[in-house]
Amino acid sequence: MKILYATSEAVPFCKTGGLADVAGSLPPALAAEGAEVAVILPLYKRVKEKFGDQLKFECYNYINLAWRSCYCGLFSYEKDGVTWYFVDNEQYFDRTDLYGYDDDNERFGFFSRAIVRMLPHLKFWPDVINCNDWQTALVPIYLKDDGVREEMYRSVKTTLTIHNIEYQGRCGRDTLGYLFGLDQGWANDGTIIMDNDVNLLKGAILCADAINAVSPTYANELKLAYFAHRLEDIMQQNSYKLHGVLNGIDMKRYDPANDEGIAAKYSVDDMAGKAADKANLQKMMGLREDPNVPVIGIVSRLVSHKGLDLICEVLHDMMELPVQLVVLGKGDKKFEEFFAWAAQQYAGRMAVRLDYNEALSMAIYSGCDLFLMPSKSEPCGLSQMIAMRYGTVPIVRETGGLKDSVQPYEAWRDAGTGFTFANYSSSDMLYVIREAVNLYLEYPEAFARLRQRAMECDFTWNRSANEYLRIYAGVCGKVWPPVQEEAAPFEETAPVQEPAAEEEKPVKKTRKAAAKKTETEKKAPAKKRATKKAAEAEAPAAEVTEAPAEEKKAPAKKRTTKKAAAAEAPAAEVTEAPAEEKKAPAKKRTTKKAAAEAPAAEVAEAPAEEKKPAKKAAAKKTTAKSAAKKAAEKEEKEEK
Ligand code: GLC
Predict the structure, then answer these.
(1) Residue 260 lies in a domain
(2) Residue-wise pLDDT tens digits, 391-444
(3) Which of 89, 96, 181, 403 could form a disulfide with 398 if both were Cys (CB 3.0 to 4.6 A apart)?
(4) Pocket of ligand 1 contains residue 244 by CB under 6 Å
(5) pLDDT single digits (tens) 490-530
(6) Which residue, among 187, 194, 189, has the nearest Cα to 230 in the 3D structure?
(7) Does residue 147 line the site of ligand 1, with CB under 6 A?
(8) Distances (CA, A) of 76 to 59, 83, 515, 580, 593
């Protein structure tokens, strides 16, 4: 399966929030599961500054966007089994920040347009494009719009991942034509219009083949007015294609046993390092150096949906408890001012940094005992998972991914992985904070066991990656993992082997040429690769003319898919298979489907059972057999 992941940010290139973490770690996880994956994102100034000399220039083109013709450069970078593509346009992306400009809608309109129009220049023609949030929400719309005129775009399926429905890409109705170059029909039928505004996310929800919210609970919440920011009806109507796959975290990057960035390393078996990290944090933040006082950490954007109102309401009650509080984040002025003021009231017990600082956030995850995240809504939330990985017990509200990733502590049976509360109420929050502090101070052994359970939670990406792959496969009419089809009985197929091979030879020849072309095409300048469809389905003109007459007359369906081409590839093609493919791990070759998609070399190397034709092949060959029989009879007649 070939997946293009379209995102406006990705770690390690550029990050403002959780989307970047997901876009940085999901694609490699998909690749590790056997998918072909590329990511496409804008070439921001900061990417150019940090990675510019490592990027490979691929090609450039001019993209028509409404009345404008915009330069679009394409760069690439190979990492973790994934090709990362960068779309270059200095007018739109050579800026200090990623977002927050008056022309953001136009910038990401261009980006989405560029993704669709640059598809022929990528290393593969994708089966599925996974777009993310409003910034790439125009991709499914442009694919449908272009697909009316250009058939090749119709084969591409789309999924939309909603990381936060609050941001919808809203702009005035008149922007549809002059900014995005779309026909008024898109507005007249309501597809892209919401409350009389252009609403890009709504358009994508309607046009995408599948939608994914970033946790099962968030997927359900999106059907409710409280969470959906006016899109609840649309979400309900489209719930038939709605999924909720919980994000993972990069468990290698976030590993207290191997993290060079923290003051002292530690693991479940030896927690001494965590005490050292706590002492280091207290010192660094100007807190009293006391190993016995529980330290509560907050790492958050200081915005309302993170539940900060609750903290503001009961901060003084919280600080009456024997605790220390560390806050890291920036955002709305009212919260920044409140926390800055509160830190002065509780000098030595409360420390605040109004900043976004990766190193300090790691010092907080590793050095704190408790992690507070009382979000009003939280699509998934990654901080609580990172905190748990570092043995910092979470206190969360039961919403979205917080509910799905933290199991409530139950003292009576010594179970759970953190403290939770259901209602958006400051007194409920205060109640569980008291419980947590009490457990820490009065029952240190029970607290240690709770901490250990939190550290042992499995937030690896491979589980979620497989769920994503099932969604991708579903929209393509495939299954994931590919099912191994039962081999057909040998006797049934053996007699037809020869005629079938004869019959299909011309097709194979053309396929071979097509496969060869795909190889050379990769090396050829990108602009020469006009369309993937052209490259894949049709061999170069010369090769086509070389094809024998029967082949030309062969029913079109025989020539339509690459899969069929690969499946039918003769043994001779085996030697021409690309070297990397030959090295592919055996598990990737276990199924008929996988074998069909792989170059013939893999088929040749596959164990004996796999070489046996499976049912479908048998059926094909039976048809081939009767065709061959007919041909033989015809020949006989002619001879007579
Ligand atoms: C957004 C959401 C957050 C989620 C992240 C990654 O930032 O607010 O909850 O974890 O996206 O999906």
Answers:
(1) no
(2) 999 999 999 999 999 999 999 999 999 999 999 999 999 999 999 999 999 999
(3) 403
(4) no
(5) 554 444 443 333 333 333 333 344 444 444 444 444 444 44
(6) 194
(7) no
(8) 10, 7, 23, 19, 30
* 378 C-beta closer than 6 A to ligand 1: yes
Are residues 293 and 221 part of one domain?
Answer: no
Ligand 1 geometric centre to CA of 567 (Å):
41
pTM for the structure as a whole: 0.77
Mutate to test the pocket of ligand 1, among 164, 165, 245, 254 (most ligand atoms within 8 A of CB): 164
Is residue 256 within 6 Å of ligand 1 at its C-beta? no
Residue 267 maps to a domain: no
Residue 70 predicted with pLDDT over 80: yes
CA distance linking residue 234 with residue 201, whole number of Å:
11
Test site for ligand 1: of 7, 9, 16, 19, most ligand atoms within 8 A of the Cβ: 19
361 lines ligand 1 (CB under 6 A): no
Report the alpha-carbon distance of residue 66 to residue 177 in Å, rounded: 6
* 72 and 170 share one domain: yes
Which protein residue has the closest C-alpha to ligand 1 atom 10?
A: 381
Ligand 1 closest atom vs CA 378: 9
124 located within any domain: yes
Distance CA 451, CA 394 (A): 9
| Structure tokens given for 357 | 């600082």
Produce one character per residue of 69-85: b if its CB has 16 or more CB atoms within 10 Å, e if not: ebebbbbbbeeeebbbb
Question: What is the pLDDT confidence band of residue 482, given thresholds at 50, 70 and 90?
Answer: confident
The reply to whether ligand 1 has any atom less than 6 angstroms from the CB of 379 is: yes
Residue where a domain stops, chosen among 424, 458, 492: 458
- 280 compared with 559, residue with greater pLDDT: 280
| Ligand 1 centroid from CA 624, angstroms | 53
Render pLDDT for 5-35 as a digit per residue (tens, 0 to 9): 999 999 999 999 999 999 999 999 999 999 9
In a domain, 495, yes or no: no
Is the same domain home to 15 and 96?
Answer: yes
For residue 447, the enclosing domain spans 272-458
Q: Kindly state whether residues 282 and 390 are assigned to the same domain.
A: yes
The answer to which of 96-100, 136-140, 369-373, 557-561 has the lowest mean pLDDT is 557-561
| Domain co-membership, 83 together with 213 | yes
Q: Do both 281 and 405 map to the same domain?
A: yes
Please work out whether the CB of residue 248 comes within 6 Å of at least one atom of ligand 1.
no
122/532 Cα distance (integer angstroms): 9
Instruction: Report the 10 Å Cβ neighbour count for 521.
Output: 19
Q: Is the CB of 166 under 6 A from ligand 1?
A: no
Tell me what pLDDT residue 356 has.
Answer: 87
Of 458, 493, 511, the position where a domain reaches its end is 458
Q: What is the pLDDT of residue 529?
A: 42
